[in-house]
């Protein structure tokens, strides 16, 4: 967006947030008047469009409820069973716990909203950091994921892949970004990443912002750079791309811009060749004004490490959105990454909120059944209260639970601002994959079956995500007991390695895809000595948990609790290969 445009957009944001209640009613009216005749809504509204009837009759649903309709459309039935506007394709979300990625319909209106949204979230950033589009280029790490063709002929792709495919994006790419399109669509993400870093380094004097969609990818880029900087410098010095990059698109793109540049290579080598990589980003890209990537939610775990590498450069989480709906923007890009709030845009969808309660174990539970709980409208949420987000969109989602829990941190004009609290029922997540307690328990059940015939029993387990090295990986703590006086030291290490493999094979599709692409590293089982889980319980009880109410956490979040288990580890085992 040009500078003269951003002030206009900020004005629009003022108007939207001031008239949030009225706009929400209009959005719902429009959705209902267009879609009341669809097979889905007819069953609840009988052709009526009143808000009160909608609130009374239309059920609050999850993806599973809408899936039969979406599957029918994907299999060739007409889309008006669910929505009136013709559909142009599907967005593939990053994954549901326990299954395949979700598919949600995309229409011309959805695409228009996505375009509008970019202006909305970029305007506050431009206001604070100047017009980056005029100042230089963005080094943004971007990776398209493979599309799926449904039997109807309609394509399903992740929201970001759909954006990379648009002709508008392809037109602005060479002027605004350092990465050529071939590196974004490169089928091997390591080849793509190497080349994107190479192009970013070659153009380092032009780079004004660095980023990716999520913090985990930026960190992955830095770690990759740590392992490959000498080779990258050699390529820059000689003007030749390394031989192991065999992707022809990447090689063509490189041949167009690479020429020997020994001075630049020496400069980069000197910077990278220092003992500490603290502040390396600033040194490598001295004109960078900020790092743009989502650092909230599950990405919080990466903030400290990113701050180490970018020393003082602001980390900007610009927006909150999902495949199902566009939700909010960060009006204070300079705010500390831990404190980011997103102001909801009332024109993007009809938003409702299901109150949830903080229980004493700091986890969030539903108060009552959804049917008994009244949903709260956007403008009526209460500061300090946590809610689960429910959306109704122009693309066939009606009272749909996104699965995110948010807390109201305040209001901007009449629009509430939310902090992201957690993904409901998700306990492990390295990147965008979501693994629930049920997913984990299923995988553990499959793996521990290997122990039983050998006379060993898995008595306790818990988990955590280890991000101390990149990419992060799942860690399982297992306490194993031998039957008939056997000691777990007698257990053949090969069996434990097999247990790691079996767990990975039993995890969901998205996990396996990410493992294959090295977005997640090998799963690890740490066997702890007898009594470790008793020590864990003692710790929680010492912190005030009632002994009678103690529930072993299925995922360890506290540093101290982690230390208790880690100090009792007697064996570490890793999955030897990717599960796909
Ligand atoms: P997807 O379904 O693949 O589009 O992923 C969307 C999910 O990513 C959301 O439902 C959130 O759980 C998470 N997400 C997206 N934006 C943010 C954000 N700004 N902060 C925290 N989590 C986010």
TrEMBL record:
The keyword Nucleotidyltransferase does not apply. The keyword Ligase applies. Residues 439-560 form the GH3 C-terminal domain. InterPro entries: GH3, GH3_C, GH3_M. One of its GO terms (cellular component) is cytoplasm. Residues 342-423 form the GH3 middle domain. Belongs to the IAA-amido conjugating enzyme family. It comes from the Eukaryota. Keywords: Ligase. This is Indole-3-acetic acid-amido synthetase GH3.17-like. It comes from Gossypium mustelinum. GO terms for molecular function: acid-amino acid ligase activity. It holds the Pfam family GH3_C.
């Amino acid at each position: 967006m040009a500078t003269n445009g951003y002030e206009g957009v900020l004005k629009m944001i003022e108007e939207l947030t001031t008239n949030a209640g009225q706009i929400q009613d209009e959005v719902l009216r429009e959705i209902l008047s267009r879609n009341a005749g669809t097979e889905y809504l007819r069953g609840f509204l009988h052709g009526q469009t009143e808000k009160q009837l909608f609130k009374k009759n239309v059920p609050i649903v999850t993806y599973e409820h809408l899936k039969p309709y979406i599957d029918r459309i994907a299999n060739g039935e007409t889309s008006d069973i669910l929505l009136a506007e013709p559909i142009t394709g599907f967005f593939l979300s990053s994954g549901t716990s326990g299954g395949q990625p979700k598919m949600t319909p995309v229409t011309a209106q959805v695409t228009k909203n996505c375009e509008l949204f970019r202006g909305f979230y970029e305007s506050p950033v431009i206001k604070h950091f100047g017009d980056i589009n005029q100042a230089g280029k963005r080094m943004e790490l971007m990776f398209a994921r493979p599309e799926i063709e449904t039997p109807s002929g309609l394509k399903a792709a992740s929201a970001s892949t759909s954006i990379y495919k648009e002709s508008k994006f392809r037109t602005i790419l060479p002027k605004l970004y350092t990465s050529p399109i071939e590196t974004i669509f490169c089928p091997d993400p390591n080849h793509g990443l190497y080349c994107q870093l190479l192009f970013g380094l070659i153009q380092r004097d032009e780079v004004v912002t660095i980023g990716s969609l999520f913090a985990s990818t930026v960190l992955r880029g830095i770690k990759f750079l740590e392992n490959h900087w000498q080779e990258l410098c050699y390529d820059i010095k000689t003007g030749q791309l390394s031989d192991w990059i065999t992707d022809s698109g990447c090689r063509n793109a490189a041949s167009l811009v690479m020429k020997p540049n020994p001075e630049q290579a020496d400069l980069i080598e000197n910077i990278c060749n220092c003992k500490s990589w603290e502040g390396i980003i600033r040194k490598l890209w001295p004109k960078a004004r900020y790092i743009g990537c989502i650092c909230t939610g599950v990405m919080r775990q990466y903030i400290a490490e990113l701050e180490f590498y970018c020393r003082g450069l602001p980390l900007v989480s610009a927006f909150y959105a999902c495949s199902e709906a566009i939700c909010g923007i960060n009006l204070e890009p300079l705010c500390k990454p831990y404190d980011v709030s997103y102001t909801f845009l009332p024109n993007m969808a009809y938003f409702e909120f299901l109150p949830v309660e903080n229980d004493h174990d700091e986890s969030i539970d539903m108060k009552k059944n959804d049917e008994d709980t009244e949903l709260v409208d956007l403008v009526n949420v209460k500061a300090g209260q946590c809610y689960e987000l429910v959306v109704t969109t122009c693309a066939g989602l009606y009272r749909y639970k996104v699965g995110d829990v948010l807390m109201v941190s305040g209001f901007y004009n009449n629009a509430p601002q939310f902090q992201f609290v957690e993904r409901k029922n998700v306990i492990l997540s390295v990147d965008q994959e979501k693994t629930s307690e049920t997913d984990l328990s299923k995988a553990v059940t499959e793996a521990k079956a290997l122990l039983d015939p050998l006379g060993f029993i898995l008595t306790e387990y818990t988990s955590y995500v280890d991000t101390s090295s990149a990419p992060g990986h799942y860690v399982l703590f297992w306490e194993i007991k031998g039957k008939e006086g056997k000691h777990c030291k007698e257990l053949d290490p090969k069996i434990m390695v097999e247990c790691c493999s079996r767990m990975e094979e039993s995890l969901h599709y998205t996990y396996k895809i990410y493992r294959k692409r090295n977005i997640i590293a090998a799963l690890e089982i740490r066997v702890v000595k007898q009594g470790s889980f008793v020590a864990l319980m003692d710790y929680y009880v010492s912190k005030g948990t009632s002994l009678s109410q103690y529930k072993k956490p299925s995922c360890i979040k506290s540093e101290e609790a982690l230390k208790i288990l880690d100090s009792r580890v007697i064996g570490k085992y890793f999955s030897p290969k990717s599960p796909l």
